[in-house]
Amino acid sequence: TLAKDTLQALYPAKQEFYLSTSGLTEFYRNEYRYFLRYVLGLQEELRLRPDARSHGNFLHRIFERALQLPNDDSFDQRLEQA
User: Fold this and answer.
1) Is residue 47 part of a domain?
2) Which of these, 56, 57, 81, 59, lies nearest to 68 by C-alpha position?
3) Is residue 44 part of a domain?
4) Same domain, 9 and 31
5) Residue whose C-alpha is closest to residue 76's, from 64, 61, 66, 59
6) How far apart (Å, rounded) are the C-alpha atoms in residues 35 and 26?
7) Residue 69, in any domain of the structure
8) Most buried by CB count within 10 Å: which residue of 29, 32, 59, 62?
9) What is residue 41's predicted lDDT score, i.e. its pLDDT?
């Protein structure tokens, strides 16, 4: 539970309390997640992931660069350098 002064800071008595349908649904599904999102205002970390095409293009460029380096080093060393 939250301390009384924390609750008063988050939800002042003179301010209207608003609860959306999605907020109520979130509370029903997972009270802790509701608390993190709607009470503390935290959001999930945004994770960017390249699509398959971008990932493939990136790997292709790395291998292309590695193969253009002198053959004196092992392939693993050339990959590190690329």
Assistant:
1) no
2) 81
3) no
4) yes
5) 66
6) 9
7) yes
8) 62
9) 86
pLDDT in tens, 1-27: 678 888 788 778 888 877 889 888 999
CA distance 43 to 23: 14
Verify that 35 and 60 share a domain, yes or no.
Answer: no
Asked if 13 and 35 sit in the same domain, the reply is: yes
- For the chain, the straight-line distance linking the first and the last C-alpha, in angstroms and rounded, comes to 54
Please report, as a single letter, which amino acid is at residue 25: T
Mean pLDDT across the chain, nearest whole number?
86
Domains: count for the chain: 2
The predicted-structure confidence for 37-50, as pLDDT tens digits, reads as follows 988 888 888 788 88
Q: Which H, E and C letters describe the chain, residue by residue?
A: CCCHHHHHHHCCCCCCCCCCHHHHHHHHHCHHHHHHHHHCCCCCCCCCCCCHHHHHHHHHHHHHHHHHCCCCCCHHHHHHHC
Full domain range(s) for residue 20: 4-39
